[in-house]
Amino acid sequence: MFKRFFIKYNYISYGEEIFALISYSPLWQTMKKKNVNTYQLIQKGIDKRTIQNLRENKNITMLTAEKLCRILKCNISHIVEFIE
Q: pTM here?
């Protein structure tokens, strides 16, 4: 019996199970270490919808990733991790 397999946003669904491909948990840890909150990100040009996408581990553009790195003075590994 075959199970359905598909990718939607940054998630893989295999049957009933859903797996995230990427996680923005390093972003939240970095923000906490640097005492930066989402309001400050919004003030520096990060859209509210983008913040919601980050909370839901959805896609963001590389431009947004670059903006986050510049705001937080960090590199990409401090905002995103890839899950295998």
A: 0.75
